[in-house]
Design brief:
Elements (H helix, E strand, L loop, with lengths): L2 H19 L3 E2 L13 E11 L6 E7 L11 H9 L16 H13 L17 H6 L1 H12 L2 E6 L9 H13 L22 H6 L15 H9 L6
Amino acid sequence: MGRREDLTRLYELLDEVEQTVGGKQKLKHCTGYMDWPDRGVYLFFASDERRDAADQLRLTRIGTHAVSEGSSTSLWDRLRTHRGAERGTYEGGGNHRGSVFRKRVGEAFVERDSLNGEYPHWGKGSSAKRERRLDELEMERRVSDYLRDLPFLWLNVDDEPSAESQRAFIERNTIALLSNYHRDAVDPRSGDWLGHHSRSKKIRESGLWNVNHVDEDYDPDFLDLLRDQIEETSSV
């Protein structure tokens, strides 16, 4: 089959995932008390865009966690980092230096709204002192509002942390299949998509909030693995 047919199959499988878990969630409604699988793949969708060929929300970000040997990061750990803080000094905000997803969304806001003067250090460094984080808190809150409203699904893939894990295989190939980077566009993003303002050409042209793997070929066998993992997934 060709790429367009494989995309259709991917979305059909995601419809099965949605039925299995009882519907898409949003981070604004999620807590760590929910029954998340220890390890898995997460899939974020646009909240206001649908595919050209079907009445399905467009997939816009794919991710996983614990792909380094010895890592103990859980699926909820990663989702919570994207969600941001709900209380404390940085309530409503978060730490974009600990979440590439948050960093990229914030960059797009900065570029779109010409806020480089207000946020000259956004995305720079792996950590920041309290004063700088407070200076960036308003933008962190904007990022939180955006991310917490995106519908998402998850897939239970409970294998050992490794760059060769099944989770990494599913993540890598899902991104490669969806990406429009340097190829004929299928289900292109609308002109209003925030990612069009990204500093990253790969984000702007791929139509995804991903940078890694957008320029790679995909192995269609990953769709069979994804299908098999649906049976291992449940609602939270």
